[in-house]
Amino acid sequence: MAAQFQLVMHSGPTPGKTFPLEGDVLTIGREAGNQIIINDAEVSRKHSQLVFQGGKYVLTDLGSTNGTFVNGQRLTGQHVLLSGEIISLGEQINLLYEAIVVADPNATMLSAGKMPAVAYSAPASRPVPPPVFAGHIPAGPEPVMAAPAPAKKSNNTMIFVGIGCLAIVCLCVVALAVVDYFSLWCAISLNMIPGCQ
């Protein structure tokens, strides 16, 4: 796969115009001797230069009056361009630098019928939290994975309740036995029982 490069004017005298980058040394300016001509008062006669080195274009300002900028930063030396960067000439002209990958026509191609079989296994499914950006407020709490259930413990509460009830019954039986033994029925009945007057 080979890459071709181009500049696309986003703002300036001809928005949408594409400038294919073909050659090892290209100059940008408003006079006719440049490979990329932009006829605008903000562009110097020889504004900036592109040099193809190591498979990439390197941008340099040529002492222009209004400056050359990449992504809003003024160039003070050489800058290796990356696809998607914005080159500004002065304040009004913005060019998008693009690398276009082109298939090599001489490359060997495999037809779909001759492709080797490849085993594919889907990755294990697990929740993926949404991306969080600076200044972004999440819509809700992040999903929480359920913790494994703890091992079951025996319920001691029922045993304590049973022992408590048995103790109360025993105390009542002992109290009734004491009252009966000492014949205290008349003393506690407040003369309500016949024969206890």
What is this structure, in a nutshell?
The protein is of the alpha+beta class.
What features would you describe in this structure?
- A hairpin with a 6-residue loop joins β1 (about 1-10) and β2 (about 20).
- The strands form 2 sheets. Strands 2-1-11-10-7-8 form a 6-stranded antiparallel β-sheet, with no helix packed on it. A 5-stranded mixed β-sheet has the order 4-3-5-6-9, with no helix packed on it.
- Helices cover about 15% and strands about 25% of the residues.
- The protein has helices spanning about 155-180, 185-190, and strands at about 1-10, 20, 25-30, 35, 50-55, 55-60, 70, 75, 80, 85-90, 95-100.
- The termini are far apart.
- With about 200 residues, it is α+β, with helices and mostly antiparallel strands.
Features:
27% strand; 11 strands; alpha+beta; five-stranded mixed β-sheet; 197 residues; 2 helices
The count of strands amounts to 11
Beta-sheet strand percentage?
25-35%
Category from helices, strands and their pairing: alpha+beta
- Uncertain regions: pLDDT < 50 for 5+ in a row? 111-115, 118-122
Q: What's the overall average pLDDT, rounded?
A: 79
Number of helices: 2
Order of helices and strands: EEEEEEEEEEEHH
Instruction: Give, in spatial order, the strands making up the sheet with the most strands.
Output: 2-1-11-10-7-8
Distance separating the two termini:
121 Å
Give me the Rg, rounded. Answer: 45 Å
Q: Percent helix among the residues?
A: 10-25%
Approximate shape: rod-shaped
Q: Can you summarize the main beta sheet?
A: 6 strands, antiparallel
